[in-house]
Amino acid sequence: MKKIINNLCLILILGSLAYACSSDKKENENSKTNEQILQEVNEVKAIGKVVPAEDYAIISSATAGRIAKLFVQEGDSVQKDQILFELEYGNSSLDVKQATAQLNSLRAQNKTIAEDIAKAEIYARELKEKYETSKLLVAKNAETKEKLETDYSNWQQQEANLRGLRKQLSAQKLTESEQQIQINKAQNIISDFTVKAASTGIITDLTAKLGQSIGSSQELGKIINIENPIIEAEVDELFANDIQLGQKVIISPVGRKDTLGQGTIFYANPILSNKSILYESANEGEDRRVRKIKIRLDQGKNLTINAKVDCSIRIR
């Protein structure tokens, strides 16, 4: 019996010592300041979103009309300046034909005037030579002055006719240039009926349909370049000053531990801002401000655009 009592006393003593040690440990942990706790943090968590490195391009038409031909559909990959769809031209093609016909008529007239000028120049040279001959004969008293004056008058009249033809051709050339401008304007109007891709990428949110009537500048879809996406993330203001350019980041699916990729911080906003729609609840979006950062992926570039991700940033 005495032995049992002694054993119980020993157990009680050991239990008291263990409790005392545990209490001392908890007191030591509780005695740490927030600053000391933050100093021991080696990794910062941030919530982010996968976004294209370049902003998306809007698909729209410069003019109103009805879609006559549709060459793409949502999900297609397109190159810059690739034709996406065409609108009905209406009378625009007839305007080009009419302006072209007028230009061809002007060119034919100008060709005729140019031929008349060439003939007039030959005739003017002949009259000049005839006047020069009469002038020599008058000097030798072999020709009358009346004949000389007549030859001079004929030559000068022809020169006047020649100057008139040249002025007429010059005016016609100006008219020809103006008509070419009219053709260019008509062709530009037709080009407005052809909608091309503003950038290289993948078509998304396409609403254009064959036969659909659309307005000018109406948004009909987007073109997103999904090559080499980046991560836009937000770091709680508590760790804002720990963020530096060049820090390494591990990218993971939200709420999971597997790794999607790795990256490097290449931009950190110098100004704190309110939390964005990355945070789902009202309390999350209002309790603290954040520092927005951008992460360039070093590995794992095949990520889904607009997907939310968890970002683990090594700060020490």
TrEMBL record:
<keyword id="KW-0732">Signal</keyword>
<protein>
    <submittedName>
        <fullName>Efflux RND transporter periplasmic adaptor subunit</fullName>
    </submittedName>
</protein>
<feature type="signal peptide">
    <location>
        <begin position="1"/>
        <end position="20"/>
    </location>
</feature>
<dbReference type="InterPro" id="IPR011053">
    <property type="entry name" value="Single_hybrid_motif"/>
</dbReference>
